[in-house]
Amino acid sequence: MIQAIRLALRSLIKTPGLTIVAIITIALAIGANTAVFSLVNALLIRPLPYKASDELVLLWEKFPAQGLERIPVSAPEYLDYVKELRTLEIAAFDYLDLNLTGGDMPERISGAVVAPSLFPVLGIEPIKGRVFAPNEFGEGNDNTVVISERLWQRRFNRDPELVGKQISLNGTSFSVIGIMPAKFEFPLPLFNVQGGTFGQRVDIWKPIAFTKNELESRGSRSYGIVARLKPGFTLAQARAELETVISNWRTRFPDNYNSASPFGATLYGFHEQVVGGMRPALLILSGAVALVLLIACANLTTMLLARAGAREREFAIRVALGAGPGRLLQQTLTESVLLALLGGLAGTVLAIWGLDLLRTLGASTVPRLAEANLDARS
Question: What are phi and psi of 332, to 5 degrees?
């Protein structure tokens, strides 16, 4: 075998043009397929990075007659959902921009306002400190924040004493009470909400403080709702209970939910809402790169057959010297395996570069893109 490998290397070196073209062909095909499969694996196959993520759902309201199928909820509606839905543990959230001052220079930070129940609903614990207590909710009780590990490292140089200190956001002092792990992402960008997206990658979370105007208006809708099915309940039961709640609202609040503008609400699987909008594009892309791989295999086969035809004299001499069919087959297979290994290594390098480029370009807008990497499955 060692002799066969040496002969294969010498043979490939003698035809550098064909060898280089073959390696590039394999590298492009394998690199593209590996990179795309890594994306599909991270976005569609892996579960979301939350506890029992298959039990998580999103609640969106709708006005079908107006073409509004997925819209956020208002503050009074959210508070009613908390009291009336027995099948779900729910939490509200909304996107928020914050100006972080202090230190060398001010910085614009993407953040979110969330109900204290959010972190228990998602099942994620901080790496330092704690999350919001139930009483840290509402105006006057919202002077605490939780920050991401990314911000802790980038802005505060992983200060071990940061928890308990004050930071200035929008000119107001807030106490840092916890630091969430780098893997924690919420809100994730949600597609097909109000015709666009809802939420993006954030680094600071603060408690919701509903204003007086929000609490008095059932039509001022700006909050998303994430929920977890309580033990012993199914999604069908939760949807049935939600419909009962909505029916009661139509009776209790006829001015807000009248027959002229039919109103409803629906529960959607969280995973499907996060990545469902990308599924068709990713499946099409997977099919395209699979086709590229087939074309590359066909082209490589043609090149190797042409090369074998040009080596008839070499094979004839070997047969005359006593080489049998098995020996000739071993030699050609060894050369093919070497080409495949070299092309595979080059393709892996291309896949790593490609994924790094994709993460740089879209990690802040494409949910879970930061999780895409090469692993044993890829």
Answer: -65, -40
